[in-house]
Amino acid sequence: MQTPNLKDQKGTKKTTILVAVRDEQDKPLVDLACDLARGKGGSVCVVAGNPDAESQKWTWLSAYQEQSDVPVEIIIHHQQLAERIILQETQKTKAEVVVLGWGGKESRGRYILSQTLDAVLQEASNDIIISQRNYTRQPQNILIPVAGGPNAIHAVKIAHQMNPGAKITLLYVASHHAKAELNAGRERLKEIDKSFPNIETTHKVIVATSPVEGILREAGRGYNLLIVGASAERNIVNRFVFGNIPKAIFNQSPISTIILRRKIPFLRSARQKLWVRLFNFLPNVSVGEQTKAYQSIQRGIRHNVDYSFTLALGALFAALGFLLDSPEIIVGAMMVSPLMASILGMSLNIVLGESRNFWRALMMMLRGVVLAIIMGSVIGLIAPNPQVTHEMLAFSQPSLLDLGIALIAGTTAAYSISRSNVSNAFAGVAVAAALTPPLANVGLTLVMGAFDLTRGAGLLFITNLIAIIAAGALVFIWLGFRPRYQNAEKNITLRRGLTGIVILLVMVTIPLAVLTYQSTRTTQLNEDIQEAVELGVNEFEGAELDTWKLINGYQTGETLQINIILRGPSTISHSKARALQEDIAGHLQRPVALTVSTIPSAQLRAFIPPTPTNTPLPTSTNQPTSTPTPTHTLTPTVTPSPTQTPTSTNTPTATLTPTNTPWVLQVVNVNYWGLRVYYSPGGLEVGRIDDGTQVVVLEDPVTLEGTEWYHISVLEQHLEGWVEGEYLGMMHEE
């Protein structure tokens, strides 16, 4: 049965009021829709559906088409009315107002009113009115509570459209008798009155312990309709957590009550739909799963011997793992620790508003914290010469990444314990959360006196603790856990708990952000220094970079103090070190204080070890044997032979008289790279010495293929080997 969409005489499309009904008990909803259509000069579209109802049972709707003074269109669906059907018909008819009914049945899971009503409220952008089935046509005395929200303001217009001659009373509920608050309420009512100059209203300000108590008390004083604005449409969390005030009034009101939610602008509607889809991503846990999770968590916050014993073992495992620098042992400690149960207990009891169980879980957690720190301290005291290890450092440097890991771990833990088919994931969450190891690290570092590491490990634990509580509470809300709306004390506990969590989360995020920023800057600085040092060292032939260390200079503008250790065949002169310093400073664009140390070394590339030969020592004629093959078997003498007389060759004779003192000569006429020092005459290079360096000649020179070789030692460089004699000269006394 349908009637055409009506237009007025000027051709303008009339306002359409859509009302969803299931059976004849919903007649008051149609009456309400007709009152609204009459006041707006529009029409009514009735969407009916119930698979259990026979077609002839819809005859009561025909009476509205025949007798009503407003146009009525009827659309019948032979299936159960659901949010999909209502939303589709709303779009087809382009209804301005949607009227829905709610019987007051208690919702389950995350839903405030019911699955269908909540979905329509979240998806539809039209004006929505939810009414009880006791609405009386054309109410004469209407009460509208006002607290500052836009829905309550819009309710004045709706009330006037229902019955232009009705008496409309605006109510403001103050929480105290303070004069300032009462005056603020009166001013608020006056502001609303200015928005409707053609609508006469009465103002009333009362004092009550809660808005619900004040509204219900006033509603019983002669009114026949109560219009309540839907709360918290701006905040998706408030929508599911704190949006219970209209529902509480709806259930307990002594008179006919409707809930009004005004039309939402397009952008806000799109944003709300996005949030709703995100919020509805997780499945709604059943009542049985909620009960099972509740019982499991509440059992976990009761202190027993198993809790203390396993926690102590976990802390001992972690402490030993830190001292042995073994991540495997630390992971095992995470598996043993029961701290996660008490932390999730705090999350759930905040959501449920059960303050007593929350404090019990908190004390349970604190007891475990103290015990874990004590166990770590004991291991630190009895361990022989404990040293800071890499794992101890890793668990003492928290960052925003650790906060993100903890949030994900808390989300997973709350979800897995609430869903029976994924409860096996709880063990993996314990590994990711890292609760006991930071506490054991706190005890260890306290005993060792590494207080910077103690602060870092403590911050890591606090980060994990707060993040898990916050994420766990959000997931529990997401899955439908919440206190009963009738209990105001539990709602207060929930509000304060969530507010405290948010504040703590912000407080712990600030130092983590600072540490993360500093760590990022330090990492970038180290990479820049590494690049600059490598480029500078490459300019030195034969030298290789061994290690470098930044002593200080992490602060902006501070001089970088860098220590560099090189491996190579020679020492680095002051001029070369100065050039390296300038190259590094130019690359980094910062002042640099450089310290360069060298380790003399030689690179052996022989794949087959040399075979020692019995090469005779050189004779007094200073001539090599027929097969001159000097090897490492040559044994230098401390002083030249007393019978040995230098020849009239290039070897100076002025100071070469037989004495018990080694010869001391000076390196002369060498280039920038210095004089090469070989392991044996013409053999492997083992180092280099600069021009002007004093050397000690250990034995007579050896001539090999026309080149005279001297066996020398440089004490300052701890260098010994053979050099060509043409680069040695007498020392000049000044």
Number of helices: 22
- Major sheet strand order: 3-2-1-4-5-10-9-6-7-8
Uncertain regions: pLDDT < 50 for 5+ in a row? 1-12, 232-243, 606-613, 619-661
The dominant shape is: elongated
Give the CA-CA distance, first to last residue.
Answer: 126 Å
Helix content: 40-55%
Give the amount of beta strand, in percent: 15-25%
Mean model confidence by pLDDT: 78
Structural class: alpha/beta
Brief descriptors of the model:
46% helix, elongated, alpha/beta, 734 residues, single chain
What does this protein structure show overall?
The protein is an alpha/beta fold. It is 46% helix and 17% strand. The strands form 4 sheets. A 10-stranded mixed β-sheet has the order 3-2-1-4-5-10-9-6-7-8, with helices on both faces. Strands 14, 17, 18, 19, 20 and 21 form a 6-stranded antiparallel β-sheet that branches. Strands 11-12-13 form a 3-stranded mixed β-sheet, covered by helices on one side. Helix 4 (115-123) links the parallel strand 4 (97-101) and strand 5.
Helices and strands in order:
Elements: E1 16-21, H1 27-40, E2 43-49, H2 59-67, E3 72-77, H3 83-93, E4 97-101, H4 115-123, E5 127-131, E6 141-145, H5 150-162, E7 167-174, H6 179-195, E8 201-207, H7 211-219, E9 225-229, H8 236-241, H9 245-252, E10 257-261, H10 266-279, H11 287-300, H12 305-324, H13 327-336, H14 339-352, H15 355-382, H16 390-394, H17 400-418, H18 426-433, H19 436-448, H20 451-478, H21 488-537, E11 544-552, E12 560-568, H22 574-588, E13 592-600, E14 663-667, E15 675-678, E16 685-689, E17 694-697, E18 702-704, E19 707-714, E20 719-724, E21 728-729
Helix pairs in contact: 1-5, 3-4, 7-9, 11-14, 12-13, 12-15, 12-19, 13-18, 14-15, 14-20, 14-21, 15-19, 17-18, 17-20, 19-20, 20-21, 21-22
